[in-house]
Design goal:
Radius of gyration: 20 Å
Shape: elongated
Number of strands: 11
Mean pLDDT: 93
Low-confidence stretches: none
Helix content: 25-40%
CATH superfamily of the largest domain: Ribonuclease H-like superfamily/Ribonuclease H
Order of helices and strands: EEEHHHEHEHHHHEHEEEEE
CATH topology of the largest domain: Nucleotidyltransferase, domain 5
Strand content: 25-35%
Structural class: alpha+beta
Largest sheet: 6 strands, mixed
CATH architecture of the largest domain: 2-Layer Sandwich
Number of domains: 2
């Protein structure tokens, strides 16, 4: 695989692991030959609180994204900026799945850009104890900078790519960074059917709220009104993402804990509230 003349190196920060995680930040570099010709950077409002565990990783807090646009606005703007350029990422499968999940939430189409992965190339060529981006930057003596912010990690990924090209020459250029998948081939896997799946899928299609009976991990059971938006499978488990009318933000619910579901077409509509705390 010859390296493309023009490509985009990108990275994302999220609320956790996709497909259930929400996008918080995109950072990207447009590269022509050996030169960065443009940059893209945007924070994204995730429509839910950011978990403290991930705040400790990237430092992005609710207050940082409270005025940001949602992925419904940011993702199309990013894809328009990318055009047809191949997308390069370190573990690009993660970032592409994040974009695919956001596209599924809002009914957006993804383009067929090729996806290329520096993690795949580093595992094949470098054979180091750790192929984490931060570890490789340190071990290879690449320019030091912050980690776990999207634009900074896109820059680290580009430096790693150029370093491997310098170290391995034609072997790197013909070794495949290619994943064999286009961006639109990364998709959200639907869950297996459950007694409530059909009701929830119909509610998504019709845009109506649903009253669910839900069992918590503790065993306690309660009823709540939600507006389902996305059904997906993650770690062999089926999940529903829905707007909780009481809380005013989106939550994820395990489908095997949804004991009952009843469409409530006459219920008043609800809109997510902006989360400003923390």
């Amino acid at each position: 695989m010859a390296l493309p003349r023009e490509f985009v190196v990108f990275d994302t920060e999220t609320t956790g692991m996709p497909p259930g995680a929400r996008l918080l930040e995109i950072g990207a570099l447009k590269v022509r030959g050996q030169h960065v010709v443009d940059r893209f950077e945007a924070l994204v409002y995730p429509e839910c609180p950011i978990p403290p565990a991930v705040i400790r990783i990237h430092g992005i807090r609710d207050r940082d994204v409270k005025d940001a646009e949602t992925a419904e606005v940011v993702l199309p703007a990013f894809l328009k900026w990318v055009k047809q350029a191949p997308l390069v990422g370190h573990n690009v499968r993660f970032d592409a799945t994040v974009l695919a999940a956001e596209a599924a939430r809002y009914g957006l189409d993804l383009p067929d850009n090729d996806t290329l992965c520096t993690l795949k190339a580093s595992r094949k060529l470098l054979k180091r104890p750790s192929h984490a981006l931060q570890a490789l930057v340190k071990e290879l003596g690449l320019p030091a900078a912050a980690h776990h912010r999207a634009l900074a990690d896109a820059e680290h990924t580009l430096n790693l790519m150029f370093k491997m090209e310098m170290m391995f020459g034609n072997e790197f250029r013909t070794s495949s960074m290619s994943t064999g998948k286009t961006l639109n081939a990364h998709s959200v896997e639907p869950p297996l059917g459950s007694p409530q799946t059909g009701i929830l899928q119909n509610a998504i299609a019709d845009g109506v709220p649903v009253q669910i009976t839900y069992r918590l991990q503790s065993g306690s059971v309660f009823r709540t009104l939600v507006s389902p938006r996305l059904l997906y499978k993650s770690s062999r488990q089926g999940w529903m993402e829905a707007l909780c009318h009481e809380a005013g933000f989106y939550k994820s619910y395990r489908l095997d804990r949804v004991l009952g579901a009843r469409a409530e077409p006459d219920a008043p509509p609800a809109s997510p509230r902006r989360i400003h705390a923390i």
